[in-house]
From TrEMBL:
Organism: Thalassotalea piscium
Entry GO CC: plasma membrane
Record's protein name: diguanylate cyclase
Pfam families (UniProt xref): GGDEF, PAS_3, PAS_9
Source superkingdom: Bacteria
Annotated Gene3D superfamilies: 3.30.70.270, PAS domain
Length: 469
């Protein structure tokens, strides 16, 4: 086995000393592994000891070669990583950032978030690559377990809620707080989880009124609402509008809650069974994620939206195609692509001017947007050329959508700001994913050939390409 000292390691140390941005990147991103790749000699790649320890290997067993990690990474994920690698090398603005799966030495799966940055020479060409690993396996397992737990809880409630009346065992074992409340709002019975959530002892709760757990601003109309519920009865879910239902615990702290009400008959009269779930942590997480998503969305809109038509641009179209093809291969669902071109658009530009042409493009996009599904990706990929990615849509369905677009465009009157009326048509090519050997290029080529046939056959029509070229 070679010496653990390596020229790339020494080179990286010198680079950190001379370039503050490299140190900042490592400081922010280096958690569970660090690697440095010689792009002039792709076999050579230095990985720090932590890189291998996370995957269960003794670093002394591993050489500083790129083949070492490429043997144990999920091969589908390797394709995605290498695609991002090549795109990042040619385009510095394209991030090298993806989640991949490695096989641990013990055979288990390790989920890794892999990020990297190309080191470029004076000509801007990438000649080294610096990257970091972050082990998110526990997060993935927790997410999976959380979903399973919620599913099991909901299943348990669906089966057992009708038996809560006299079943002391189920009442006490419920994972959420259970309170039995009389017509006056007095709590006549509470379970252990209610004590845990609200911070009161069981006897304390059973000497309180339900309004004692409410915010002052909600107390005024509560007696009237309670009387109405006891009169009308039925099952009722409160807090369906997320984050709007609040309660207060023994420390005066505010809790986000969801409440399910059921009116039951007992030996001592009607009683409301309130099942209360504390969703405060979930709400905090959702708010944090929403804030992050909003920030990310603003950044994405700056680079992924066509400024004229306000739909996606070619860059987002290509990114989406790569992702959808990967999902399609992995999960074996349908995927179709529509290529659309405006017939004789050059004539409109030449005769009416580019301003009028832009008005036509905007109106056409608005029309087509009403004819496709919310989960379809509509993008402008050229001057008058558009693409529509249709996930989980087979060829017949996609052809039907395309034919409706042709019909609606032909029968639509486009009105310019000068009040002049314009009629136009479009030609469309359609194809669908066939098997796992399909690529972005093959799918695009078939749709483009189908579009070419539509134009050759007289325009204003749809052509479907059903086999590989």
């Amino acid at each position: 086995m070679e010496n653990r000292e390596n020229y790339l390691r020494e080179e990286l140390y010198q680079l950190i000393k001379s370039d503050d941005s490299i140190f900042d990147f490592i400081f922010d991103a280096c958690i569970d592994g660090l690697w440095y790749w010689d792009l002039d000699n792709l076999e050579q790649e230095w990985m720090n000891d932590r890189f291998w320890q996370v995957l269960g290997y003794d670093p002394q067993e591993k050489a500083h070669l790129s083949a070492e990690w490429q043997k144990i990474i999920n091969q589908d994920d390797l394709k995605i990583a290498m695609s991002n690698f090549h795109r990042h090398c040619s385009d510095p603005t394209h991030p090298y950032d993806q989640t991949v799966r490695y096989q641990h030495k013990n055979g288990s799966t390790v989920w890794i978030r892999c990020r990297g940055i190309a080191i470029r020479d004076e000509a801007g060409l990438a000649h080294r690559m610096l990257g970091a690993h972050c082990d998110i396996t526990k997060l993935k397992e927790m997410e999976s377990q959380y979903r399973r737990n919620l599913k099991e809880i909901d299943k348990t409630y669906a089966i057992t809620k009708l038996a809560f009346e006299e079943s002391e065992k189920l009442f006490e074992m419920a994972p959420d707080a259970n309170l039995k409340v009389d017509r006056s709002g007095n709590i006549v019975k509470a379970n252990k989880q209610a004590s845990a959530i609200f911070g009161y002892g069981k006897e304390q709760l059973e000497s309180m009124n339900i309004s004692d757990l409410m915010l002052n601003k909600h107390k005024h109309g509560h007696p009237k609402n309670l009387e109405k519920y006891f009169t009308e009865g039925g099952a009722r879910k409160m807090g369906a509008e997320r984050g709007q239902l609040l309660a207060i615990n023994s420390k005066g702290e505010t809790l986000n809650v969801e409440i399910t009400l059921n009116l039951i008959d007992t030996s001592y009269g009607k009683c409301a069974l309130a099942t209360i779930r504390d969703v405060s942590e979930k709400e905090n997480l959702i708010r944090s994620l929403q804030q992050q998503l909003e920030e990310n969305k603003k950044l994405e809109e700056l680079t992924l939206i066509d400024p004229l038509t306000n739909i996606f641009n070619n860059r987002h179209y290509e990114d989406t195609m790569v992702k959808e093809l990967s999902d399609c291969s992995r999960y074996q669902h349908d995927l179709s692509l529509i290529m659309l071109d405006i017939d004789h658009f050059k004539v409109i530009n030449d005769e009416k001017g580019h301003i009028a042409g832009n008005e036509i493009l905007i109106q056409l996009v608005q029309l087509i947007s009403t004819l496709i599904r919310l989960n379809d990706t509509f993008a402008r990929i050229g001057g008058e050329e558009f693409a529509i990615i249709l996930p989980q849509s087979d060829l017949d369905t996609s052809v039907a959508i395309a034919e409706r677009i042709v019909f609606e465009v032909e029968n639509h009157t486009f009105i310019l700001k000068t009040s002049e009326k314009i009629k136009l048509t479009v030609s469309i090519g359609v194809t669908s994913f066939i098997d796992s050997s399909d690529t972005y290029s093959s799918l695009y080529e078939r749709a483009d050939n189908a579009l070419y046939q539509s134009k050759n056959q007289g325009r204003n029509r749809v052509t479907a390409f059903e086999t590989k070229s």
